[in-house]
Amino acid sequence: MLSREDNEYLTRTGPGTPMGAFMRRFWTPFMLSTEIAEPDCTPVRVRVLGESLLAFRDTEGRVGLVDEFCPHRRVSLFFGRNEACGLRCVYHGWKFDVEGNCVDLPSEPGDSTFKDKISLKAYPVREKAGIVWAFMGPVALMGGLPEQEWMEVPDDYIYQSRWYQESNYAQAVEGEIDSAHVSFLHSRLDNDAENKAALTGAFFAEDTAPKWKVTESDFGMTLGARRCVDGGRYYWRMNQWLYPFYTMIAPTPGESRTVRMWVPADDGHCNIICITYRNDHPVSAQELHNWRTGAVAHAALIPGTLTPAANSGNNYNIDRDFQRRESFTGIAGIRAQDAAMTESAGAIVDRSLEHLGTSDTAIIKMRRLLIDGARALEKGVEPLAAQDGSLYRVRSDSVIIDEDVDFDAKPDILEGMRVSAHAAE
Q1: What is the separation of C-alpha 45 from the centre of its chain, rounded to a whole number of angstroms?
Q2: 393 close to 418: Cβ distance less than 8 angstroms
């Protein structure tokens, strides 16, 4: 459990909060490049760390992330005209470029210098591998992008999506790194041969109380969960949690890998960017179908929105007959199952009422690392991972071994979780 004071400290990320200041030391992913694919396209509203912002691509292809509201009379620039290398407010014609400079002030006299005194809040932006990042902290402290493996694979090896979840970022991450729940929430009542090696199969059904080994590092932590399977062998699943909101979920051996970014939109909503990729061959048509329909990894959305089709308004389409016959939950799709649990606790969980057990080892550690990092920043200690993108050259993994030893005692396992150095940008 956390005290109510620590819970507030952990979950509040808006401007002026300690955790918000900590988050702003890192590059923040906020949308897919395809959402603003064309020059002079329609601007897109984005909520990031409690701020209402607009993203747009100008005539020359540059991306801007700016305050949604015009500094003149604070009307929304969403209704503005994206034209001739700038975003023009339709109320009085004030126009701003991607850096927030006022480039035209037609409502003022021609000899006025007022334009030179006006600016729109804007953040530095970078694009990499189909994702758009912003740096929302002090520009003098801007480090490099996180160098992750999926950022270097060919376009046909990867699938990306984005959606919103109605919960604080912290409980969304906690659900992701909680390996113990897989034995229950994602299980089926019919553990047939087809499911034997799958996420919902026997690996998780045979041992529902995994042994945990959590190792801290400069990038965050590796979360090892060991289960006894197949008559005395051991299944290790090593997930990664990376500062401040990245998770890498271990694949079933030979399958695709998934990275999620649980970016705070505001204190009660989470902006989720999901990356699923292969590093051995292009993704198959069946894999793409499964991801797009929300069967695994990604959320199926209401067309034209960032809202999952299975949501709190329809009770995640729970089917009680399905629950009695086949599914532990009666909810179809891993993403919908996770969201149902995470969102059902409310926008921000009162962690002072929790009763945590040994299966919550990783969750306890993640909370402590974030709180300690924010408190250190308040004392002037900058987070190392925010400056050194090479720390993110890791991957998740899963293995089956014969020895009763911890994963970090096996050099070959550790080597399998390292990613070779590559150019970040």
Answers
A1: 18
A2: yes
Q: Are the beta carbons of 349 and 4 closer than 8 angstroms?
A: no
Which residue do the tokens 């793409």 mark? 288
Give the C-alpha separation, 118 to 113, whole Å.
10
Closest C-alpha to 329, from 316, 311, 348: 316
> What is the maximum alpha-carbon separation in the chain?
85
From the list 392, 314, 360, 350, the residue with the least C-alpha distance to 173 is: 360
Tally of residues, the chain: 425
Residue 108 DSSP SS3: coil
Q: How far is CA 101 from the centre of its chain?
A: 31
Strand 220-229 relative to strand 81-82, pairing = unpaired
Please report, as a single letter, which amino acid is at residue 389: G
SS3 144: coil
Angstrom distance (rounded) from CA 324 to CA 339: 21
Of the pLDDT bands very low, low, confident and very high (cuts 50, 70, 90), residue 183 is confident
What one-character-per-residue DSSP string does 186-216 give? T-BS---GGGTTSTTSHHHHS-SS-EEEEEE
Q: Are 55 and 64 in contact (CB under 8 A)?
A: yes
Tokens 């401007």 correspond to 15
Instruction: Report pLDDT digits (tens) over 350-360.
Output: 999 999 988 88
Across the chain, what does the average pLDDT equal? 92
Q: What pLDDT digit, counting tens, does each position of 141-161 carry?
A: 999 999 999 999 999 999 999
Q: Are strands 102-104 and 95-96 parallel, antiparallel or unpaired?
A: antiparallel
Looking at residue 321, what DSSP letter applies?
H
Q: Which residues pair with 301 in a beta bridge?
A: 308
Amino acid in position 359: S
Which residues, in sequence order, are CB contacts of 285 under 8 Å at separation 6+? none
Residue 232's CB is within 10 A of a number of other CB atoms, namely: 8
* Pairwise CA distance, residues 111 & 387, whole Å: 45
Can you spell out the DSSP letters for 337-381?
HHHHHHHHT-SS--GGG----GGGHHHHHHHHHHHHHHHHHHTT-
Contacts of 239 (CB under 8 A, 6+ apart): 176, 177, 179, 222, 223, 225, 247, 248, 249, 250, 362, 396
Q: Which of 53, 218, 194, 195 is nearest to 120 (CA)?
A: 53
Do residues 112 and 105 lie in contact, with contact meaning Cβ atoms separated by under 8 Å? yes
Please name every residue paired with 182 in a beta bridge, in sequence order, or none if there are none: none
Whole-prediction pTM value?
A: 0.92
Q: What is the DSSP letter of 409?
A: G
